[in-house]
Amino acid sequence: MRVNITSKGFTAKQSQVELIEKKFGKLEKFFEEDTVVNVTMGYNKKKLQTMEAMIPVKGMIFRAEFSDLDMNTCLDKVVEKLTTQITRYKKKIQKSHRHVKGIIFEEVPETADSLSEDSVLEPIKTKSFDLTPMTAEEAVLQMEMLEHSFYVFLNEDTGKVAVVYKRTDDSYGMLDPKY
Fold it and tell me: Which residue has the higher pLDDT, 161 or 85?
């Protein structure tokens, strides 16, 4: 497993880098050797230290984020969240992504709160709506007027479907899918 570390707003000390690599090394047993973990460290608008980790595995992404005054706490919580995701969703992932290589299911332990492969993870409500061409700024305005946390729209700049969303730091993000 390779760990890519990016620090924003500061330079990570060698001791931090080594600790991050060691902690994420605990997840190695769940993944094949060529798996890459992308870790980003920085500060949020509330001046808290924040860490985000993403592990893309052939069609799936495991992701965890945590903010705290202490980066070591962030590190511990992010690794804990990723471990929980992997163990909790093991059976579901195994059933629906059996053909996916990259995850070593035999190494993922069973837990009391693991979802069984019979567990249903289906939407309980479906909505249909017209896609209106608009700019991202107009989509954010529409989202705020509807008091939603996200809004799907047809991006008039690209002609493609996009999603704007409200981030935890009260700023906005946009998902622009590749297809």
Answer: 161
Rounded to two decimals, what is the model's pTM?
0.62
Domain residue spans of the chain: 2-107, 133-175
Q: Are 5 and 39 in contact (CB under 8 A)?
A: yes
Give strand ranges (E) for the chain: 2-7, 36-43, 49-57, 60-68, 133-134, 150-155, 161-166, 172-175
**Beta bridge pairs of residue 43:** 49
Q: Into which CATH architecture does domain 2-107 fall?
A: 2-Layer Sandwich (3.30)
Question: Is there a common fold for 2-107 and 133-175?
Answer: no
CB burial of 100-138 (b: ≥16 within 10 Å; e: otherwise) equals eebbeeeebeeeeebbeeeeeeeeeeeeeeeeeebebee
Confidence at 21, pLDDT banded by 50, 70, 90 = very high
Fold type of domain 133-175:
SHC Adaptor Protein (3.30.505)
Least confident of 18-32, 53-67, 83-97, 158-172: 83-97
165 and 40 Cβ atoms separated by less than 8 Å: no
- 13 pLDDT above the threshold of 80: yes
